[in-house]
Design a protein that fits this description.
This protein has one domain: Metallo-beta-lactamase, Chain A (4-Layer Sandwich). The strands form two sheets. A seven-stranded mixed sheet has the order 1-2-3-4-5-6-7. A five-stranded mixed sheet has the order 8-9-10-11-12, with no helix packed on it. By secondary structure, the protein is of the alpha/beta class.
Length: 228
């Protein structure tokens, strides 16, 4: 996979369908940089970092999680720097780690064929918790590039974090627009709420977790039509 540049300060390591790997985003500040999402496994994370190094970009000092699902978080133990999550995300990770400790990892491998592919070489399943936990909303600035990190209602999970980079006019959304795993059912009031959030943020580019960048108009219409 090749790193692509989305805006002056944002790069994206693209999603992959076969192993259900999401987009991993990178935001370059003047003083330090941050990533969005930690990857499906340590191998995924290392491939992302190799792409950053090939582009002469410094490794991120902070990685922000959009939600707790494995394809976005189980590479956390290989992350450079610190990880930030909302408190619900951290709670879900703690619960899943406890289940792995009690039951082993067979149930996890059986959850979906893409998980089996990601871990086909016998690599260990490692779940770690975030170093930093927030509630509601926070602002950070890695250097002349303010980044707003906030929780939002979503039909996908109850712990969605959105990342807004106002000066780049980009909203990084994770999987927030999708239905709930495993049947992908959509709670329409939650989809409507997310559509309203996007309207309020008013970005020019929306970046979903497992698709190419979209206009907010397309994302909002899909949410209102129940096609998130």
């Amino acid at each position: 996979m090749k790193l692509s540049r989305l805006t002056e300060r944002i790069w994206v390591y693209p999603f992959e369908v076969e192993r259900d790997r999401p987009n991993l985003s990178y935001i370059r500040g003047d003083r330090w940089s941050l990533a969005v999402d930690a990857g499906h496994s340590a191998e995924h994370t290392r491939e992302f970092y190799k792409a950053l190094e090939d582009a002469s970009l410094p490794l991120p000092q902070l990685t922000v999680l959009t939600h707790w699902h494995w394809d976005h978080t189980f590479g956390m133990h290989a992350v450079h720097g610190l990880c930030l999550a909302n408190e619900r995300t951290n709670r879900h990770l703690a619960d899943f780690r406890r289940r792995l400790e009690e039951e082993g990892d067979a149930f996890f491998h059986a959850m979906h064929e893409t998980i089996h592919r990601e871990y086909a070489d016998g690599r260990p399943v490692v779940v770690t918790l975030a170093d930093l936990v927030y509630r509601g909303e926070m602002m950070i600035d890695p250097g002349n590039c303010p980044v707003r990190i906030f929780q939002a209602e979503s039909p996908h999970t109850d712990d969605s974090t959105l990342i807004h980079v106002p000066e780049e006019k980009v909203l990084i959304m994770g999987d927030s627009t999708g239905g709930a795993f495993p049947d992908w059912s959509v709670d329409q009031p939650l989809a409507d709420s997310l559509a309203e959030t996007i309207r309020w943020v008013n970005p020019e580019i929306c970046l979903p977790g497992h698709w190419t960048p979209l206009t907010p108009e397309v994302v909002i219409q899909d949410l209102l039509d129940g096609e998130g």
